[in-house]
Write a structure and sequence with these properties.
5 helices; 182 residues; 5 strands; alpha/beta
Length: 182
């Protein structure tokens, strides 16, 4: 029994190229590139918004938010957590590319609720080197959205923090629930 859907744009009956998943992705890109037309956009998002979200494969972020190509900057990581690297990306997005709004999207059933900082210690024991990053695990998704909002609001590197809103996406219904900052 397969736990994955057929590749987008393919039916389950359509033959798929043999090889690795990366080979399949490269093959899909070849087909994509044959019909590609330069949309004539620059890197500045039309809606002047940056969206920070979890990397969870169940979230079709653009579809869930009604976004099209060129509308936003999308920054994804495990948990949708506002880390130093997210702040770096947001600072570049704002200061070099004109974004003014930030939308934070966590979700129900996040794997970061089932992991602990022990993951980092176990990884160190396995590879012999301590990871330079924190796991950023959490137990309460709404509280973590609030923490992410606070991190954005308190960052000295972000010029625009007056329109920052956080949400929890329900992976079973597709609905967003807004989380009020504390």
């Amino acid at each position: 029994m397969s736990t994955s859907a057929a590749p987008q744009g393919h039916s389950a009956e359509e033959p798929v190229a043999l090889g690795t998943v990366t080979d399949r992705l490269v093959d899909a890109n070849r087909r994509y590139a044959t019909g590609f037309a330069d949309p004539g956009m620059d890197a500045r998002p039309v809606l002047q918004v940056a969206v920070v979200a979890c990397m969870d494969a169940r979230i079709d972020l653009h579809a869930a938010l009604g976004l099209r190509l060129g509308d936003c900057h999308t920054i994804r990581n495990a948990g949708g957590v506002v880390t130093d690297d997210v702040i770096r990306s947001l600072a570049i997005s704002q200061r070099a590319l004109g974004t003014r709004s930030i939308v934070l999207v966590h979700h129900t059933g996040c794997g970061m609720e089932n992991i602990t900082e022990d993951f980092r210690h176990e990884l160190e024991l396995e590879v012999g080197q301590r990871p330079p990053w924190a796991v950023e695990a959490f137990r309460d998704v709404r509280q973590d959205v609030r923490q992410s909002i606070r991190r954005v609001h308190t960052s000295p590197y972000l010029a625009h923090t007056d329109d920052v809103r956080g949400f929890v996406f329900d992976v079973h219904t597709g609905a967003l629930e807004e989380v009020e900052p504390s």
